[in-house]
Amino acid sequence: MKGEKLWKEFLDTDESGKPAAPKLPVYGISRRSFLSALGYSAVGLSLLNCRVPEQKIVPNLAKSPEQTPGVANWYASTCSGCSAGCGTLVKVRDGRPIKIEGNPAHPVSKGGLCAVAHSLVFSLYDSERLKQPLIGGQPSDWTEVDRQVGAKLASIKQSRGKVRFLSNTIISPTSKALIDNFLGTYEDARHIVYEPVSTAAISAAHLETHGVGSIPGYKIQNAKLLVSFDADFLGTWISPVRFTKDYSAARDLKNGQRSMLRHIQYEARMSVTGANADTRFTTSSAEQNEALTFLLTALVEKSGQSKSVNYNLLPPSGISPQMTQHLETTADELLNHRGESLVICGSNDPDVQLVVNFINETLGNYGTTIDVNSPSPHTQNSDGTFAGLIEEMKNGEVAALFLLNVNPAYDCYAAKEFTEALKKVPLKVSFDPTLDETALSADFVCPNHHSLEAWDDAETDSGIYSFNQPTIAPLFQTRAYQESLMRWSGDVRSFYDVLRQTWQQTNFTKQTKFSKFDDFWDQSLHDGIFADQTVKEPVTRTFNDKGLNDALLRLNKTEQSDYSLVLYQKTSMRDGRFANSPWLQELPDPITKTSWGNYASISPGAAEKLSLTEGDVVSVKKNNSAIELPVLIQPGQSDDVVAVALGYGRTHAGKAGNGVGANAFPFVEFLNGTFRYQAANIDIAATGKRSELAKTQIEESSHGRPLAQNIALSQYVSGDHPIKQTEFEKLFAEHDYPEHKWGMVVDLSACTGCNSCVLSCQAENNIPVVGKQEVAKMRDMHWLRVDRYIDSNPDGTEVTFQPLPCMQCENASCEMVCPVLATVHSSEGLNMQVYNRCVGTRYCANNCAYKVRHFNWFDYPRDDKLANMALNPDVTVRTRGVMEKCTFCVQRIEEKKIQARNEGRPIKDGEIQTACQQSCPADAIIFGDLKDLNSMVNANKKSGRNYILLEDLNTKPAVSYLAKVRNRKESKEDH
Amino acid sequence: MDVPIEKLELSIDERRIRNEVGRITQHPAVSPLREPLVTGNKSYSDVTNDINVIHEQGAGLGWWIALAISSSLLLIGLIAGYLTVTVGIGTWGLNRTVGWAFDITNFVFWIGIGHAGTFISAILYLFNQKWRTSINRSAEAMTLIAVMCAGIFPIIHMGRPWLFYWFLPYPNSRGSLWVNFRSPLLWDFFAISTYFTISLVFWYIGLLPDIATARDRARTKFRRKLYTILSLGWNGSNRTWSRYETVYGILAALATPLVLSVHSIVSFDFATSLIPGWHSTIFPPYFVAGAVFSGFAMVMTLMILVRKVMNLEDYITLDHFEKMCKVTLLTGSIVGLAYITELWTGFYSGNPNEIFMIINRVLGPYAWAYWIMFTFNALVPQLFWFKRFRRSIPLIFVLSIFINIGMWFERFVIIMISLHRDYLPSSWTYYLPTTVEAGLLIGSFGLFFTAFLIFLRLFPIIAASEVKGVLKYAKH
Question: What is this structure's pTM?
Answer without folding.
Answer: 0.88
